[in-house]
Design a protein that fits this description.
The chain has 147 residues and is an alpha/beta fold. 37% of the residues lie in helices and 16% in strands. The protein has one domain (19-143). Strands 5-4-3-2-1-6 form a 6-stranded parallel sheet, covered by helices on one side.
């Protein structure tokens, strides 16, 4: 079938820094606190409201200014959410393949945004205590792989 839906033939998606699934500001701040030289991709929880996600990431980035990071919105299977994310200023989106994927891909291209059909591999700290040394160590190892 060639290229993935929403991608130009022959164009590979841009490589991203290690991704961390963030459900709240504390997780975003922890990821930025432990970011390595590659930076981090802060990936929203699936279906999170774009305004909430942007505010959370902005607050985390303000608490840790100057640290390299990308912001990626996971719109799950909701094309309307993807369009709202584009209008809110997000330029790196995930939308699961759906009947409206092509239309959203066209809109993303108009905005200069990148639309991917699946999220990158991500560390999900959902059940990890990031206040504990063990939890923070797991996140640090994800963000700064040895080798």
């Amino acid at each position: 079938m060639g290229a993935e839906a929403g991608q130009r033939p022959g164009k590979m998606p841009e490589a991203l820094p290690p991704a961390v699934r963030v459900h709240g500001r504390a997780e975003a701040e922890a990821a930025l606190a432990l970011v390595g030289p590659l930076g981090a991709t802060l990936l929203s929880a699936p279906g999170m409201a774009p305004g909430v996600f942007l505010a959370m990431v902005a607050a985390a980035a303000a608490a840790r200014p100057g640290l390299p990071h990308r912001v990626m919105m996971d719109c799950a299977e909701a094309p309307g959410l993807a369009l709202a994310a584009l209008r809110a200023g997000l330029r790196l989106l995930v939308l699961a393949p759906c009947p409206a994927f092509g239309a959203v891909a066209a809109a993303a291209e108009e905005y200069g945004a990148e639309l991917r059909p699946e999220p990158p591999p991500a560390f999900d700290p959902g059940r990890i205590d990031l206040n504990s040394p063990g939890g923070r160590n797991k996140l640090a190892q994800w963000l700064c792989p040895a080798g």
